[in-house]
Amino acid sequence: MEDDIQQKREDYEREAVPHMDALYNFAMNLTGKSDDAQDLLQETFLKAFRFFDSFQKGTNCKAWLFQIMKNSFINRYRKQTREPTKVSYDDIEEFFDTIRSDDISLNDLERELFDNVLDDEVSDAVASLPENFRAVLILNDLERFTYEEIAEILACPIGTVRSRLHRARRALREKLFEYAKNRGFVSGK
After folding, report:
1. pTM to 2 decimals?
2. What span, in angstroms and rounded, lies between the C-alpha atoms of 133 and 116?
3. Domains of the chain, start order
4. pLDDT at 83
């Protein structure tokens, strides 16, 4: 019995844990807040470990984890829309600490990535996309999932994935045309 648990833990650590950074980035894009993303990530990994026996070895563990995360996010969103808004003392205290502090630490992985790789204008353009477009764009262009894997993760037809990806890229192209022109990537029209 204990050997089975140890084997499950080793298999889980080998298959699931290497995808933690990619899942955190996806959680940040879903929630928009570091603390919420960390909670969603933790919830995803707890569920994945609890149900790891149902994972079929040899299949795409990363896609399986993304699907768990997406479903957890949707369930959490539905639950929050049914509950009245609550404000905790800790949130208020944190808010006042943030506005009082002159030195704000940027520990947010996504912010570091975008700050180091992409200009603010590009980051803002991606963030301004509707959630369903942004999710497809990130899963395809950053995480390199196939259309089939994205369709499975988002529980929608492949045609919908293609359509959303096309529309997301078109919207980004429109939002970033002046940016590209100013930096010499395209000639003015």
Report:
1. 0.59
2. 23
3. 1-107 (1.10.1740.10), 118-189 (1.10.10.10)
4. 60
Strand segments, DSSP code E, in the chain are none
83 vs 81: CA distance, rounded Å = 6
User: Tokens 């990806």 correspond to what residue?
Assistant: 165
Nearest residue to 28 (alpha-carbon basis) of 71, 73, 64, 60: 73
Cα dihedral 97, 103, 106, 107 sign = negative
Residue 183 one-letter amino acid = R
Nearest Cα residue to 140 out of 42, 59, 29: 29
- In this structure, how many other beta carbons lie within 10 angstroms of the beta carbon of residue 75? 11
Around 143, how many Cα atoms within 13 Å sit in the side-chain half-sphere?
A: 27
pLDDT digits (tens, 9 = 90+) for 61-112: 999 999 999 999 988 877 766 666 565 656 665 655 555 444 444 444 444 5
The whole-angstrom separation of Cα 24 and Cα 112 is 13
Q: Could you give the CA distance from residue 69 to residue 30 in angstroms, rounded to a whole number? A: 10
CA–CA distance, 10 with 150 (Å, rounded to integer): 27
Q: How far is CA 14 from CA 54, 59, 88, in A?
A: 16, 13, 38
Residue range 112-135, pLDDT digits in tens: 544 544 567 877 888 889 988 999
- Straight-line distance from the first to the last Cα atom of the chain, in angstroms, rounded to the nearest whole number: 69
Rounded to whole angstroms, the Cα distance separating 168 from 176 reads 12
